[in-house]
Structure formats: C-alpha cells, structure tokens
Amino acid sequence: MQTRSGSERQTETSTKEKQTVGQFFKELPVLVVVALGIAILVKAFVVQAFFIPSGSMEDTLRINDRVLVSKFTYRISEPKYPNVVVFESPLTERIPEPEKGAFQALVDNIMEGLGLQSSEQDFIKRVIATEGQTVEVKEGAVHVDGEKLDEPYRKDMNPMPDYGPTTVGQDKVFVMGDNRSNSEDSRVFGPIPTSTIIGKAFVLIWPLNRFRWLGSS
Residues 123, 179: one domain? Predict the structure, then answer.
C-alpha cells in the first residue's frame, strides 16, 4: 500500500486553495451584481437613507444629517401629525436633471440609497394636518381645527406671519419645516398629495452622537 509523502499532500492542499481562490474571483462579479441588485430593491421598496441638504428641519434634523426612511409604512397606514416625511418636490419649477448615462444613474442610485447624497427634487418636512383638517397661523402660532399646537420641536418660538385658514383637501397633507423662518413648505406651495410621499423618516443614524429614533415625532 502506497502512502503519499508530506510534500505531495502539501502540494495537493496548495492546489485546492488556489482553485478555491480562483473560483472566488470568478464568482466575484456575479456576487457584486447580486449585492447591487438587492441594494437597489431595498432602496426602491423598503428603506432608504436620506441626506439632509438644508436647514429647514433644524434643530430636529441638521444639514448633513442622515435619516432612514421607511417606504412601506404608508402602505399599511396613513401619514399623520407629527410624522416627518420625505416627498417629491411640489414646486412647478423643478431643478432640471442633468443627462446621465446608465453607469452614472446606477452610481447615483446607490449613493442615494446609502444616504451619501440626495436628489434635489425631494423635500423633508413635518406633517401638521391631514385630510379635512383646517390649518391657520394666527397670533404667531399654528392652529389645527381651532386648537393651538404645542410644538416643542420648533427651532425657535418667534411669531410667524398669519396664514390661512385653509382646509386640507382629499388625499393631501399639510407640511411645515421645524425651522419656520427658513422653510419653504405648505404655506408656500399648499398641501401636498399623499401620492408624492416617498416615506416616513423614523431614525436619525448620523452623526452617531445624535443617533435617536424619530418615532411619531
């Protein structure tokens, strides 16, 4: 009975290791494509990271903060006060999108999904009132259906110019930024259709020292 020498066994092991490494690198492009596909699907249907580009939601959310936005919440529930929501810009003069190739579009999609950049066509504000409710700003405060809102999240309590009253139409919500003196919101463009809401911001993930659940507020 023949037995293999130690050098033969070592050679065989080395060959198997090389085959394993070689197989891994052959499969790597497929794994990358699958991972990218999963990331894009998650961004499209489940959760997306969102980069805060302006100070309209200070001090709740600051410039360069990152939040996670649930895209399925409003498939099983309705937006309500005081949810923080991301939605498509309602402004008629939308910022023109530069022409992109397929690769650049893919890169931008991934960057947006990771919260490294955000589309300039998306806004983030707080839901103040929903369908059928009447909003009015008077005596420097927001009133909904005649009741003054207690708004501890506001950046400042400086009096606001009078607005309204206006009643929120069917399938719409009235949104405002927490930084009232620096927010282009429903006082400018009116209530927004719920169909334009991308999702609900539910957690502040970056910077780490400000990590917190946004919850209903």
Answer: yes
Residues 6+ apart with CB under 8 A from 161: 137
The CATH number given to whatever domain includes residue 158 is: 2.10.109.10
Give per-residue pLDDT as tens, 73-130: 898 899 999 999 999 998 865 455 555 566 555 555 555 555 455 555 789 999 999 9
Q: What are phi and psi of 183, to 5 degrees?
A: -140, 125
Give mean pLDDT, residues 138-146: 95
pTM: 0.73
Containing domain of residue 26, as a range?
Answer: 7-45
So which residues are the catalytic ones? 56, 125
Would you say residue 2 lies in a domain? no
Phi-psi region of 190 (alpha: psi -120 to 50; beta: other; left: phi over 0): left
Q: Is the dihedral of CA 55, 57, 58, 61 positive or negative?
A: negative
